[in-house]
Amino acid sequence: MAARMKITVTVTLKNGVLDPQGRAIEAALKGLGFDGVGAVRAGKMIELELAEGTPRATVEDMARRLLANTVIENFRIDMP
After folding, report:
1. 10-residue stretch averages of pLDDT, the chain, 80 residues long
2. Cβ(46)–Cβ(9) under 8 Å?
3. Alpha carbons within 13 A on the beta-carbon side of 3
């Protein structure tokens, strides 16, 4: 079996884009009595298991074409 590596792609909304999920989380935390909670932004984390040696450019292409909507989202890739 070929060697595999785990890649993490973190997708977040760009600044200025409304985040209703983040606002709902913020309100819920405050409603539970967690004082001091400021603005909350929600995102998503995607784990990929890829063949060892997969180029970063390939992962960036995956993120741009499918994993993130680059009009309203940023992404960060963490790979070995």
Report:
1. 92 96 97 95 97 97 98 97
2. yes
3. 4
- Residue with the two structure tokens 């590596």: 5
Write the Ramachandran bin of 20: left for phi over 0, alpha for psi from -120 to 50, otherwise beta: alpha
Q: Residue written as tokens 């600044």?
A: 15
Report the Cα 24 to chain-centroid distance in Å. Answer: 18
Helix, coil or strand: residue 52? coil
The H or E element that residue 3 is part of is none
* 4, β-bridge pairs: 51
Conformational region of residue 53, where left means phi above 0, alpha means psi within -120 to 50, and beta covers everything else: left
Residue type, 25: I
Paired residues of 45 in beta bridges: 10
Query: In one letter, which amino acid is 33?
Result: G
Asked whether the whole model's pTM tops 0.85, one would answer yes
